[in-house]
Design brief:
Layout: E1 2-6, H1 11-22, E2 28-32, E3 35-38, H2 42-46, E4 54-58, H3 63-71
Antiparallel strand pairs: 1-4, 2-3, 2-4
Helix pairs in contact: 1-3
Length: 75
């Protein structure tokens, strides 16, 4: 399992992230506080507070998705 911190600032970023996650054949979860959302759920992610840093857990590996994570990564 890999963990990353990301920030999705608007609906277009969420759409790009969900599209990349949907192409993966493994589970990806997004965490904020005690809330866990499936990263392939656009409505779930849009319901989160997008002003906060989100934690992503990937239960597999995909190079294209890794590039998307790097694009939205927070230092």
């Amino acid at each position: 399992m890999a963990e990353s911190k990301i920030k999705l600032t608007n609906a277009k970023a969420v759409e790009e992230f969900v599209n990349a996650a949907s192409r993966c054949d493994f589970d990806i979860d997004i965490f904020y506080n005690r809330i866990i959302i499936d990263a392939k759920s656009i409505l779930g992610i849009l319901s989160m507070d997008l002003t906060k840093t989100l934690t992503v857990h990937c239960y597999g590996e995909n190079q294209d998705f890794k590039r998307t994570l790097q694009k939205f990564a927070v230092a």
